[in-house]
Amino acid sequence: MSQSEKVNKGSGEGKTQDMAIFSPPVVRSGAGALNRALFTKTVNLAAAAVNDNQPDTWGTALKEGVEKKELDVIPYELKLDYDYWSYHDIITSILPEELHDDIPSGFNTAGHVAHMNLRERYIPYKKVIAELILDKTQNIRTVINKVDNVGAESEFRTFQYEVLAGPDDMQVQVTENNCVFEFDYAKVYWNSKLEAEHRRLINMFEPGEVVCDVMAGIGPFAVPAGKKGVFVWANDMNPESNKYMQVAINRNKVSQYVRPFCQDGRTFIHHAADSVLEAHKASEHVLIAPKPPSRAKKAPKPEPKRVDIPPTISHFVMNLPATAIEFLGCYRGVYAGHEDLFEGGKLMPMVHVHCFSFKADDETPRNDICERITKYLGFKVKPGNPDVEGEVAVHDVRDVAPAKRMFCASFRIPREAAFAKRD
């Protein structure tokens, strides 16, 4: 499983005053370490003792049973312990009340690793929070906390972390979009919150098209696309990402569709366009085995279907939101001298560039993104229909901070840019 999770808040929310008797003991001194033994409680209740051989006296017959003294009400001690209460129940009993307004409960997961990003005021309680998550969340064996911003340690979007609970084991396995990925979470970039965005773009790709994934990571776009019969030139500058992308390609059996590269994204854009055209000229293709006929039919065995690599790229994906817009100038001259490839109304390649902008309810973020695209692409663009040259569709992907959002801007490369002379 690879997804963003929240610890089950269980019975800790919405308790009535009567139900408060089932709350855990208040342990405000629990900042240092989690003492599970402190979380025991005996609740004095009244219980109905029913004759085992008279079950018909239960339910609506309760009052009648008491009147006939066939049923007695007796004292009963209900013993509750640590296993009974939810994460939210226990952490609420530990944290001081002034910290109850925003209790940490959400985290990213990558396989068995829970990745937290604790705010400063909860750091004194980080070990307790981590132990609780470990105890109360299935399939989690390691809890880490990010100690710097993604990319601060390296250009490969990795980050420094500290292990709060469990072993320092970052070798994980995740399943996303029907593909299995194995990787070292400490050495490559992976964000479980992007699964829906990966799926959204993959759904745009048609079998037999070519996609150029400029910043491919370990292949969350490339590998599932290959599985649906899309040719992918997949690149990442991080050698570790390239290594684990090759593992994913082999494991998911998409090697005939997905080609891994390890280059700078700026040079890869032109390289990919040239390489795809060369593959087309060399008649490179895949053969798709036909479905075997049913035993009842005696028809001749059908021939495999041949799918040739087309001469041009249909989509460029640039999932490096911090800086990808700055790469857009590299599309100048991407098809210099090959105007003939786009004759007869053939559409220019679509670019999907991820980026950050500020949160707003109006068109301000979209206008901001288009201004930056204009600056680096060198051609004026505006919000609109991505199939119209000079217009950009801006998709709102997700929140990344209180005043910051991630977007994906999609547009077709202007012909004047694509056919310009290469530098």
UniProtKB/TrEMBL annotation:
InterPro entries: MeTrfase_TRM5/TYW2, SAM-dependent_MTases_sf, TRM5-TYW2-like_MTfase, TRM5/TYW2-like_N, tRNA_Gua_MeTrfase_euk. It is an enzyme of class 2 (transferase). Its EC number is 2.1.1.228. Keywords: Cytoplasm, Methyltransferase, Mitochondrion, Nucleus, S-adenosyl-L-methionine, Transferase, tRNA processing. Pfam families: TRM5-TYW2_MTfase, TYW2_N_2. Its main location: mitochondrion. GO terms for biological process: mitochondrial tRNA methylation; tRNA N1-guanine methylation. One of its GO terms (cellular component) is mitochondrial matrix. One of its GO terms (molecular function) is tRNA (guanine(37)-N1)-methyltransferase activity. Specifically methylates the N1 position of guanosine-37 in various cytoplasmic and mitochondrial tRNAs. Methylation is not dependent on the nature of the nucleoside 5' of the target nucleoside. This is the first step in the biosynthesis of wybutosine (yW), a modified base adjacent to the anticodon of tRNAs and required for accurate decoding. This is tRNA (guanine(37)-N1)-methyltransferase. It comes from Sordaria macrospora (strain ATCC MYA-333 / DSM 997 / K(L3346) / K-hell). The lineage of its organism: Eukaryota, Fungi, Dikarya, Ascomycota, Pezizomycotina.
